[in-house]
Structure formats: C-alpha cells, structure tokens
Amino acid sequence: MTQSELIVLNFTEIRRRSIKLWKALPESQYNWKPDEKAMTSMGMIRHVLEADYGWNMIINNESMTNYHTPWENRPLISVADELEFAQPYRNTFLERVRQFSDRELNETEIVHPGNGEKKNLGKYLLRIGYHESVHAGQFLTYLRAMGIDRPSVWD
C-alpha cells in the first residue's frame, strides 16, 4: 500500500466514525451549542464537511484570496442533506490525495493560508485528519451535554 492509499484509508475511517456520531443528532438539537461563542451542532458538521473544499484548494496550491465555498448562503436542512451535498467535494479531495506519489508527499511544501506555516504535504494531510478527529471529540462532548446516547466510535 502506498503512502497516499494509507492516508485516504485514514481519512475514510475518520469520516465513517464522524458520520456515525452525526447521525445520532436528533433534529431538535441541530441548533444546540454549549455557549454563545461555540458552533451549533449542525454548524460543526458543516464546518468539517465544508473543509474538504478548502483543503483541496490548498493541496493544489490554489489561491485562497477570495475564498468562497459552495455552502455560502445554503440553509442547514439536515445531516443527510449536508452529507449528500458534500459528497462530490469529498470525492474530489480523496481522488486528489490518491494521485500523490510518495515523493510528492515527502517533498512538496504546503503553506497553510490561515497561519502561513509551512509543512510537507504528507504531514499536512495527516493534520487534516487530526482536524476532523478533534471535532469528533467535540461532537461527542456536545452529545453528552445534550443527554443523547453516544454511538461507539470504536466499532
């Protein structure tokens, strides 16, 4: 298995577990948030799904100067609707990651537009997985605070 195949496998497993958590969210709790500064439950789901669009731009060295996403002004309807809308962008992102050679993963330098940090591509991709994993942990805390039964992410 190549490095890019392993990274895609990791992304796929992380997303599978995130979806398991998101599907446990009842519609009545879509706008729940632990405090005024936090994202809503659905806002967090959208944030994670929408990120694939931006990650793809970053790993393709596209300009983020006038960044706009297909989610702008799109109403939050349901978890299922968000997943369906996001799937083509997820597929594009994963397909691009699959195309990277081991050499590209180890030698290409990525500059994150938010903070200007430079990372090699392989490490940058692993941090993308970490981003979603952190939000999965936050989402588990949201579910706990709402008193919702939490699905096991270890199955």
Strand content: under 5%
H/E series: HHHHEEH
Instruction: Kindly report the spatial arrangement of strands forming the biggest sheet.
Output: 1-2
**What best-fitting shape do the alpha-carbon axes yield?**
globular
Provide the low-confidence segments as ranges: none
Biggest pleated-sheet summary: 2 strands, antiparallel
Helical content band: 55-70%
Distance between the termini: 23 Å
- Output the structural class: mainly alpha
How many DSSP-defined strands?
Answer: 2
Q: What's the Cα radius of gyration? A: 16 Å
Put simply, the count of helices is 5
Overall mean pLDDT stands at 96
Please give a structural write-up:
By secondary structure, the chain is mainly alpha-helical. It is 59% helix and 4% strand. It contains five helices and two strands, in the order H-H-H-H-E-E-H. The chain has a two-stranded antiparallel sheet. A hairpin with a 6-residue loop joins strand 1 (109-111) and strand 2. Helix 1 runs parallel beside helix 5. The longest helix is centred in the C-terminal third of the chain and has 26 residues, at 121-146.
